[in-house]
Amino acid sequence: QVQLVESGGDLVQPGGSLRLSCAASGFTLEPYSIAWFRQAPGKVREAVSMISSSDDKTYYANSAKGRFTVSRDNAKNTAYLQMNNLTPEDTAVYYCAAYQGLLLPTTMAEYKYWGQGTQVTVSS
Questions:
Q1: pLDDT of 47-70, one tens digit each?
Q2: Residue pair 7/21 in contact by the 8 Å Cβ criterion
């Protein structure tokens, strides 16, 4: 069964850190670019960060620059999103998605596989 499974979401205080994981099963992650999207209540889903299949290109939304770091470990078939200095505005469900190719599309429809999401809540 082909799937992406996110984990690592939690309740954290402002200024805290979390590392999200995106584990692939049923297929090999290596040929895919990986994106992290998030969706806050009442808002549209937005691209947060991406890493190319070749591991040499990354993308960060302005809101993530300087605080988030995307990475991947093809040997573990897993991608990661390290999030530091979290704020309440980062509260959302975070999804990972896989795009087959070298590009880093920001359009959701381009992505072939999606995870079920993991909840990140930043609150004191």
A1: 999 999 887 899 999 999 999 999
A2: yes
